[in-house]
Fold:
Amino acid sequence: MKKNILYNKINKIELKKKLKDEDFKRITASFYKYITIEDPSIFRNNLFLLLNKLEIFGRIYVSNEGINAQISVPEKNWGILYIKLETIRELKKITIKKALQEGKSFYKLTIKVRDELVAYGLSSKSYNMKHVGKHLDAVEYNNAIENPKTTVVDMRNYYESEIGRFENAIIPNVETSKELLPEVKKILKGKEKDQILLYCTGGIRCEKASAYLIESGFKNVSQLSGGIIQYAHDIKEKDLKSKFKGKNFVFDQRLGERVTDDIISNCHICGDVCDEHTDCKNDACHILFIQCLNCSEKYQGCCSTECQNFAALPTDQQKIFRKDPKRIISRTYFDSHIKPKLNS
Structure:
């Protein structure tokens, strides 16, 4: 195989223009599977060739323990994708979940080989993927939440749950996956015999998290089957009352999918009701934060006046400042104003 065809070589601007000019519709979807992959690199290269030929974009992680994928598929190739995946032994009968709302989610195909599908940093002795939590569908999950002795835990980072979460869920105050499980275990101490309900975006984080909690002595662990994405589809199809309020955060250019009309968060700058995440336009910052339309216009998509001023500098000057950590203007507003509020 020629290495140069296994990676995208086109620059971002050109790729985004090409995406904008497409004359066909795309379907955003996701799937994961914990399964042994003997040689992730070979698997990765073969998958890249297959998906690239079908004009599929997305972000995919492959490891010895399986695959985790978020993809954007041309509608004309949706059926072909299913047929092709059935020819891959490890991916036979895999469940693919369509996104709740469409949008320009990805503009290129990236497939990376990782040590873990979810970066928990766990010892292999601390969990057993043959013993995971019981999978509950939307009806079962709603019923379980009604039990006053049930503890519901959000297995996502705080900035995801900030714009949408299940009623009365415990929200661990963590920024990374590596921090999550030790924090959850500490929060749940003393509840080893209680019913524990886990949920996350699509289910993959709960899969290993439930295995870890069971290995840690928790007797009654369940998880939302298919995550928030599947739950949102199910409540709509079955006309159920949603116990989840707000938006489902997603790790692509859309940054969120609305599940209910509830807006449960506020603009990080002015405090107005808002649940729109944005990426600070200062290239030396790029902090992810919530910003209303008025503040977006006022600060030109930046998180602070400092970042706005820095972003307005000529590129050559920005490069000079970036070489001196003491002079660089980045994360200023977030670290001094937003983070203290989140930790309070």
Remarks:
- The first strand starts at residue 26 and ends at 34.
- The mean pLDDT is 89.
- Residues 277-343 form one domain.
- The CA atoms of residues 125 and 215 lie 9 Å apart.
